[in-house]
Design goal:
The structure is a single chain. This protein is 50% helix and 17% strand. It is an alpha+beta fold and 452 residues long. The chain is rod-shaped.
């Protein structure tokens, strides 16, 4: 994907957002799980404190004794991770699991009825979670403070958290994949209208539509309006430029005609050298003026133009066949009514007329005409059976509007005008020797069968 692609940017930002959200969710869930496990452990330890309380015999001869051992056997196994301590006055009794280790409790006991949750250092570098509680009991008819502390190894809590994270990571991975897929689908659906805009622009280029219009998503309508306004302004400017060119060219025709009259007067007075020089200059200038007039006639907007080459060639052949030479020529035209070109019919008529006149001028006895479709292009071929021309002269007569045969009348701008018309609609004109004769080929964009 291109770095400037909107789809790539949205995908990257979406993946980053999903990854960030899931990472925060994992941290939050881990913290919530820790708190939940700790609350459960504290509740369990508090329950064990209350289970130890009725086992204490305050009036025993040794001042404190447990009438029976706790149910959990881990309290009897040394350093098992389950411990308890009972203090009554100066008397201390511990579980056998502590062995000879004393828990470092705060000097001040909790207030009676209060529960303190402590983190203590246990035997063999164990880190313990402990519940410390105090009770007021009667001993020898005197109130005494009974302090009971129950602790458990917090490694069990860490193992539970790691097990939870181990189960959570695969679930989050699957969830991340589903969210990324959903994000990709959302991006594809959201960007689909952009493809519609591209299709509209393609339709403008192909001449199927004249403007983008309003039948678009709300968010892109302002852009479509601006493009349509630009197209309107362009058409108006092209129309003004076309009229200015036409006015300028017409303005030159009258002075040039007057110069030709002066040259004729000079001929009558015997000043042929000056008259010939004036005629040469005037002829060159008239050639340029006529070419600019022809260019000005080319339609400025061909977006909705459609022309049928076969029908136009049929009309031109009927006209040219009435000329003295045209009546003696074999006109071979194969019909192709389904081929339409994206060009103004008048422009195509002028271009094909120039090519057919040129072919008639140089042919021996036959002219072939074909119109066919090749992919998205409409191809028009005109071939005569004349002598042809050398390859180095082909581009010169197209670009400069020169006549190779100076004995034949005319301004010599026919092929140049054809080239201008074809290039104006984005087509191609090519000339090549066909042995015998010259083959002229025009390639134009095909037009839709229905008008926009």
């Amino acid at each position: 994907m291109n770095r400037r692609s909107l789809r790539l940017r949205l995908v990257i930002s979406g993946v980053a957002a999903i990854a960030g959200a899931l990472a925060l969710a994992a941290v939050g869930l881990a913290l919530l799980f820790d708190r939940h496990v700790e609350r459960v452990a504290v509740a369990d330890l508090d329950a064990r404190v209350m289970a130890l309380l009725p086992m204490v015999e305050a009036n025993a001869p040794d001042a404190i004794a447990a009438s029976r051992s706790p149910i959990d056997p881990q309290y009897d196994r040394p350093f098992s991770g389950r411990y308890w301590m009972i203090r009554l006055g100066e008397t201390l009794q511990t579980s056998r699991s502590l062995w000879d280790f004393d828990l470092a409790l705060p000097a001040k006991a909790p207030a009676p009825g209060a529960t303190h949750v402590l983190t203590l250092q246990g035997p063999m570098d164990q880190r313990l979670l402990a519940v410390d509680r105090s009770f007021i009991i009667s001993r020898n008819d005197r109130p005494e403070v009974l302090r009971i502390t129950v602790a458990t190894d917090s490694a069990r809590l860490r193992d539970a958290r790691q097990g939870f994270l181990g189960d959570l990571v695969p679930f989050l991975s699957v969830l991340a994949g589903l969210l990324v897929a959903a994000s990709w689908f959302q991006i594809m659906v959201g960007l689909k209208p952009l493809a519609q805009i591209r299709a509209r622009v393609t339709a403008l280029t192909m001449g199927e539509d004249r403007r983008l219009g309003q039948n678009l998503p709300t968010e892109v309508i302002p852009l479509a309006n601006q493009i349509d306004h630009l197209l309107d302004a362009r058409d108006q400017e092209l129309e003004r430029a076309r009229h200015r060119a036409a006015d300028l060219a017409h303005g030159f025709k009258t002075p040039l005609q007057a110069l030709l009259g002066d040259a004729e007067s000079l001929h009558r007075r015997g000043e042929d050298e000056i008259a010939d020089s004036i005629e040469t200059v005037v002829t060159t200038m008239r050639r340029h003026v006529d070419r600019e007039l022809a260019r000005a006639r080319i339609q400025a907007d061909r977006g909705g133009s459609r022309a049928e080459p076969t029908a136009i060639m049929e009309k031109l052949v009927k006209l040219l066949a009435r000329t003295p030479k045209g009546s003696e020529i074999d006109w071979d035209l194969q019909p192709a009514p389904g081929v339409l070109a994206r060009i103004d019919p008048d422009d195509l008529t002028e271009a094909l007329g120039a090519l057919l006149e040129n072919a008639l001028r140089h042919c021996a006895a036959r002219i072939e005409m074909r119109a066919l479709a090749e992919g998205d292009r409409a191809v028009i071929r005109i071939r005569d059976d004349g002598p042809g021309i050398s390859p180095d002269q082909i581009q010169r007569i197209i670009r400069r509007g020169e006549r190779l045969d100076q004995s034949i009348g005319g301004q010599g701008i026919g092929l140049a005008i054809v080239s201008d018309i074809v290039e104006a609609v984005g087509g191609e004109l090519s000339l090549r020797n066909a042995d015998p004769g010259l083959l002229a080929e025009i390639r134009l964009a095909r037009a839709p069968r229905t008008a926009p």
